[in-house]
Design a protein that fits this description.
Elements lengths: L1 H33 L5 E10 L4 E13 L3 E3 L1 H11 L1 H23 L6 E5 L2 H4 L4 H12 L6 E6 L7 H14 L2 E7 L7 H5 L4 E4 L1 H4 L6 H16 L3 E5 L4 H10 L3 E3 L7 E2 H8 L8
Parallel strand pairs: 2-4, 4-5, 5-6, 6-7, 7-8, 8-9
Antiparallel strand pairs: 1-2, 1-9, 1-10, 2-3
This protein binds ligand C2E and magnesium ion (3 copies).
The site of ligand C2E has 23 residues, from strand 2, helix 2, helix 3 and strand 6.
């Protein structure tokens, strides 16, 4: 009986695998055409300086409105894009759109300029010519390099320490800011923090979410903040959903915050309504 059951379970597992593969394949086929069909769009989520309460930048977040699947979240299609290599084309589209957009905003409104952040897939960051990609986009769009930030996750560094340092140095020399995204979530190694020319740590929202209620989370956020400041890095907290969390973070000394409580990611037009009124305090 045990043997039979084992086999049945295996069959169910195999069926589910096949279904998942078929779905991924279907998504891949549509994603391939998404750029050319104009189905991709950037949303912008403001970042706020905690001490002045002013918006000092925004993160560009990708949205895909597919005629086939509707709005499909990045957590669903980005992994598929990574598995198939499509991510390079997509990331390039994002970088170029974000720079172009920020250039336009900076030329149209006489407010203090904002920095735009883009997420870069580890696969992309590890390409030997990654810094050339950035260089070309900056040249093409005319955006001031100081107004571009890239967000990379810790798994971008696995096995490639020396190459990463070299690439980060080139980016720094160009004037670009680099943040470590989802900090603390993966298999972090503190080793690279000593050597890497980066600017900020973005604490993963799983530590922020309940920081107002949870002693362990407070301890972790405090420790990361202390570490970052000793290393001359800024600390950004993502996923702020309540005022209580803001108060705790303020006490801990966090530099910047981002989250639904400040603002959701917004389509271009809605973000512009904020941008036009800078310096602007959302809270
Ligand atoms: P991320 O870079 O860590 O982005 C933050 C995610 O948290 C975004 O989800 C954002 O909408 C969401 N978020 C912001 N504030 C809150 C909050 O207060 N509460 C909660 N629960 N969530 C909040 P989104 O836009 O669905 O993106 C998910 C992930 O997909 C991103 O995580 C990033 O890793 C990836 N991604 C998004 N756009 C791009 C892109 O253009 N290129 C690449 N390579 N990856 C992207
Ligand atoms: Mg990010
Ligand atoms: Mg993140
Ligand atoms: Mg993420």
């Amino acid at each position: 009986a045990a043997k039979l059951k084992g086999r049945n379970n295996y069959c169910i597992y195999e069926q589910e695998m096949n279904q998942a593969n078929e779905e991924a394949l279907l998504i891949e086929n549509h994603l391939r055409k998404a750029i050319d069909n104009n189905e991709l769009e950037l949303f912008f989520q403001p970042k706020m300086d905690l001490s002045t309460r002013q918006i000092n930048g925004m993160e560009a977040l990708l949205r895909w409105n597919s005629p086939m699947f509707g709005n499909i979240p990045p957590d669903k299609f980005i992994p598929i894009a990574e598995d198939t290599g499509l991510i390079i084309k997509i990331d390039n589209w994002v970088i170029e759109r974000a720079c172009e957009q920020n250039k336009e905003w900076n030329s149209s409104w006489y407010s203090s300029p904002l920095r735009v952040a883009v997420n870069i897939s580890p696969l992309h960051f590890r390409l030997p010519n990654f810094h050339n990609v950035i260089e070309n986009v900056l040249e093409k769009t005319g955006l001031d390099p100081n107004l571009l930030e890239i967000e990379i996750t810790e798994n971008s560094f696995i096995d490639h320490i020396e190459e990463c340092i070299e690439c980060l140095n080139k980016l720094r020399n160009m004037g670009i800011t680099v943040a470590i995204d989802d900090f603390g979530k993966g298999y972090s190694s503190l080793n690279y923090l000593r050597k890497f020319p980066i600017h900020s740590l973005k604490i993963d929202r799983s530590f922020i979410h309940e920081v107002a209620k949870n002693r362990e989370d407070i301890a972790i956020v405090k420790a990361i903040t202390y570490l970052a400041h000793e290393l001359n890095l800024k600390v950004v907290a993502e996923g702020i959903e309540t005022r209580e969390v803001i108060e705790v973070l303020e006490e801990i000394g966090c530099d910047e915050i981002q989250g639904y409580y400040v603002s959701r990611p917004l389509p271009k037009k809605e973000f512009e309504a904020i941008y036009r009124r800078l310096p602007y305090q959302l809270l």
